[in-house]
Write a structure and sequence with these properties.
Blueprint: E1 3-7, H1 11-19, E2 24-28, E3 40-43, E4 46-49, E5 55-56, H2 62-70, E6 74-84, E7 89-98, H3 104-113, E8 116-118, E9 125-128, E10 134-137, E11 142-146, E12 148-151, H4 155-162, E13 176-187, E14 197-202, E15 205-210, E16 221-227, H5 229-234, H6 240-255, E17 261-276, H7 278-282, E18 287-288, E19 294-296, H8 299-302, H9 306-323
Parallel strand pairs: 1-2, 1-12, 2-8, 6-14, 12-19
Antiparallel strand pairs: 3-4, 5-7, 6-7, 9-10, 10-11, 13-16, 13-17, 14-15, 15-16, 18-19
Helix pairs in contact: 1-3, 1-9
The protein binds flavin-adenine dinucleotide.
């Protein structure tokens, strides 16, 4: 049994923790909750999945489906979906959502695997000790004696954290991300919009989704809008109120809404979705230190969805199992 530290309790880190339960796992996250970019926000009486929206029914990660059904984490729904709203293309689409919001998926996995964990613990340094074991440091504490360190956070942040222990000069081309500004908005009265989700609402809004189809308890009409990555890049530091007003005006104009808004809030995801994956560039499934003790993984290895994140963690876990025999 090895002492393994996992930095990041998003879907990648949870996949590793799930697959390596025979070891002594400790999982760290800087946030107060597991899930990372799978995030359900509650504001007063409003609920929004403002990170990952759904899981595709046709994703091909068998183990993720097994875990979702084993712990009863998801439900399949069928909705009217605009495959391209601007071109008036629609379909009926089957998707998988969390039983209680998308974050209930990582949250329940975290609760079920019952590994040692430190939330609210941002890891700021990793060091190798004279006994060849590793220490992790948060701002307040040192955590000692790890055989392996598995870093499961966005690429640039993991590079920064491990640059003294991994030789990045061999990585000639790097994975990249698109940023996304999201806007959560809500109306007291129902706007009776038929189409419940879709792509390309406007040149600056790449995705929209109704939240009432996910949360039966909602009495208000709640929506999440994703600004396009192009718009987000060009307006990365935009004032939040200006962004919210702009998104609201597009939404109301598009659906001819006359009702008054009851809530609006935005969020900036700097590393939202993988644009170019590491596997596409290198055909590799992780980045490792020369001594094979520190590993970098994340959705950025394989793609841009939470199933890619799970798959990346699962693939690395097979290698760690071989190494640790
Ligand atoms: C707006 C948006 C919409 C999306 N829509 C979809 C969708 O509909 N369907 C889909 O499949 N995917 C979607 N995605 C992508 C999906 O959310 C991600 O691919 C997946 O959640 C990434 O998981 P991860 O574990 O690799 O990374 P993350 O979720 O980013 O997890 C990393 C974790 O590491 C923690 N962390 C970071 N630095 C440190 C540190 N120094 N110390 C300790 N902890 C640290 C973070 O708090 C975080 O919890 C969307 C993403 C966004 C942002």
């Amino acid at each position: 049994m090895k002492n393994i530290a996992i930095i990041g309790a998003g879907m990648t880190g949870l996949s590793l923790a799930y697959n390596l339960q025979e070891h002594n796992i400790t999982i760290f996250d800087k946030s107060w909750r597991p899930g990372g970019r799978v995030s359900t926000r509650k504001h007063d009486n409003y609920l929004f999945d403002h990170g990952a929206h759904y899981l595709s029914t046709n994703h091909s990660v068998v183990q993720l489906n097994e875990v979702i059904s084993r712990y009863n984490l998801g439900k399949e729904i069928e909705i009217d979906f605009a495959t391209d709203y601007l071109k008036n293309k629609k379909t009926r689409k089957k998707i998988i959502i969390g039983q209680n919001g998308m974050n209930s998926i990582p949250n329940s996995i975290f609760d079920n695997i019952k590994v040692k964990s430190y939330l609210n613990s941002k890891i700021i340094k990793i060091s190798k000790n004279s006994n060849d074991l590793f220490s992790l440091f948060s701002e307040k504490k040192e955590f000692k004696d790890f055989d392996y360190i598995l870093i499961c956070i966005p690429y640039l942040q993991s590079k920064e954290l491990s640059k003294e222990l991994i030789d990045f000069t061999q990585i000639f081309s790097e994975p990249s991300y698109d940023p996304i500004h999201t806007v959560m908005l809500s109306y007291k009265d129902n706007n009776n919009i038929k189409i419940k989700a879709g792509l390309n609402l406007h040149k600056d809004i790449s995705f929209f989704m109704n939240q009432n189809i996910k949360f039966n308890e909602l009495s208000n009409d709640c929506w999440v809008l994703n600004m396009s990555s192009e718009y987000t890049k060009n307006n990365i530091d935009i004032d939040k109120t200006e962004l919210e007003k702009y998104a609201q005006s597009i939404f109301e104009e598009t659906f001819d809404i006359k009702n008054e808004i009851s809530f609006i809030k935005s969020h900036r995801w700097l590393y939202a979705q993988t644009k170019l994956s590491f596997n596409t560039i290198s055909k590799k499934n992780w980045i490792n230190s020369k001594d094979n003790k520190i590993f970098l993984s994340g959705d950025w290895v394989l793609g841009k969805s939470l199933s890619d994140a799970w798959d990346a963690g699962e693939k690395l876990s097979h290698y760690i199992k071989i190494l640790s025999v």
